[in-house]
């Protein structure tokens, strides 16, 4: 109880999460056939949520290493700083999809309407200032889901605004750029949209598609990862967002990417024998650390992982 009060006070005064991390901890991830995440004190990011598709979603305790199954949510994401969470419910409420925002210190929860059934708004992405959440909006046509735009939720105002965007790929998704715009795939490259009205801010032609769903931008915002265009043998490309061009190609073939570990390392899932490994890669494609061994059964269950950066603690 004393520890809980101390944590709450720390969060209230600083607005940042005081994540306690042991010198070394192997964190058991429930529902994953025995996966253990290998964490160390001083890690630049913290595994705060994970799930298996939309069937099971797990959220980490603010004060320890345990993960709890969030039975009413199909996904959840922890805001920068760790105080707020944004969750998408497994079902509509009164004919609307919603975003559930929870303050983990006060326990207060807000349920904010996003889109009307049969549309869905999911794949929550927090802005870097922790004030807004972007969601990708889909609509079912002829039995298939198609992306039609995005919803931006203003957390403080408890309001949502949905914007339709023409000509999106069926599997497009929207994520925040460090400067507060939204990024999505466009052809064999990227397009940046203004969140207020969906106006096109910039197009990066032929640079490859984003490696999301975790933030594809480096912590500094000076680099952006994409899946290299097919004209290259390498699979992972680094983009200079200011110049709008590929500045480096990494000869490595991940199964998936989960954002940046720090300014010079990436988080990736790699095939390993008949299973997989979650690893930290340097920008030459070399594994510098093994974070977890993942059985094939767990990976095929659509495992996703969500990290929160520790740099502001």
Cα end-to-end separation: 22 Å
The total strand number stands at 26
Rounded mean pLDDT score: 91
In N-to-C order, the SSE pattern is HEEEEEEEEEEEEEEEEEEEEEEEEEHE
Strand content: over 45%
Rg = 19 Å
Uncertain regions spanning at least 5 consecutive residues: 1-18
Strand order of the largest sheet: 5-4-3-26
Main β-sheet, in a few words? Answer: 4 strands, antiparallel
Number of helices: 2
Q: Care to describe what's here?
A:
The chain has helices at 2-14, 296-300; strands at residues 24-28, 36-40, 45-52, 56-60, 67-69, 73-78, 84-89, 96-103, 109-116, 120-126, 132-141, 144-154, 159-164, 175-176, 182-186, 189-193, 200-204, 209-210, 224-227, 236-240, 245-250, 256-262, 265-272, 275-282, 287-294, 303-309. It is mainly beta and 313 residues long. Strands 5-4-3-26 form a 4-stranded antiparallel β-sheet. A hairpin with a 5-residue loop joins strand 10 (120-126) and strand 11. Residues 1-18 have low confidence and may be disordered.
Helix and strand layout, with pairings?
Elements: H1 2-14, E1 24-28, E2 36-40, E3 45-52, E4 56-60, E5 67-69, E6 73-78, E7 84-89, E8 96-103, E9 109-116, E10 120-126, E11 132-141, E12 144-154, E13 159-164, E14 175-176, E15 182-186, E16 189-193, E17 200-204, E18 209-210, E19 224-227, E20 236-240, E21 245-250, E22 256-262, E23 265-272, E24 275-282, E25 287-294, H2 296-300, E26 303-309
Antiparallel strand pairs: 1-2, 3-4, 3-26, 4-5, 6-7, 7-8, 8-9, 10-11, 11-12, 12-13, 14-15, 15-16, 16-17, 18-19, 19-20, 20-21, 22-23, 23-24, 24-25
């Amino acid at each position: 109880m004393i520890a809980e009060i101390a944590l709450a006070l720390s969060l209230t005064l600083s607005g940042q999460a005081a994540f306690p991390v042991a010198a070394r901890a192997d964190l058991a991830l429930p529902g994953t056939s025995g996966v253990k995440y290998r964490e160390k004190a001083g890690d630049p990011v913290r595994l705060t949520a994970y799930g298996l598709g939309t069937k099971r979603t797990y959220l980490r305790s603010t004060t320890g290493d345990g993960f709890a199954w969030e039975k009413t949510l199909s996904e959840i994401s922890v805001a920068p700083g760790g105080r707020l969470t944004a969750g998408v419910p497994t079902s509509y409420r009164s004919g609307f999809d919603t975003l559930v925002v929870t303050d983990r210190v006060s326990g207060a929860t807000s349920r904010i309407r996003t889109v009307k059934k049969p549309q869905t708004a999911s794949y929550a992405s927090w802005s870097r200032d922790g004030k807004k959440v972007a969601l990708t909006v889909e609509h079912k046509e002829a039995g298939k889901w198609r992306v039609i735009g995005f919803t931006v939720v203003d957390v403080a105002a408890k309001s949502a605004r949905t914007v339709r965007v023409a000509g999106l790929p069926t599997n497009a998704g929207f994520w925040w750029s460090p400067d507060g715009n939204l990024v999505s795939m466009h052809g064999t490259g990227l397009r940046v949209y203004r969140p207020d009205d969906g106006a096109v801010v910039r197009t990066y032609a032929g640079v490859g598609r984003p490696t999301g769903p975790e933030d594809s931008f480096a912590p500094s915002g000076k680099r952006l990862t994409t899946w290299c265009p097919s004209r290259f043998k390498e699979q992972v490309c680094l983009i200079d967002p200011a110049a709008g061009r590929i500045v480096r190609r990494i000869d490595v073939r991940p199964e998936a990417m989960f954002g940046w570990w720090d300014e010079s390392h990436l988080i990736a899932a790699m095939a390993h024998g008949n299973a997989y490994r979650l690893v930290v890669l340097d920008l030459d494609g070399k594994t510098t650390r093994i974070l977890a061994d993942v059985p094939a059964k767990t990976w095929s269950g659509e495992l996703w992982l969500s990290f929160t950066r520790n740099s502001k603690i």
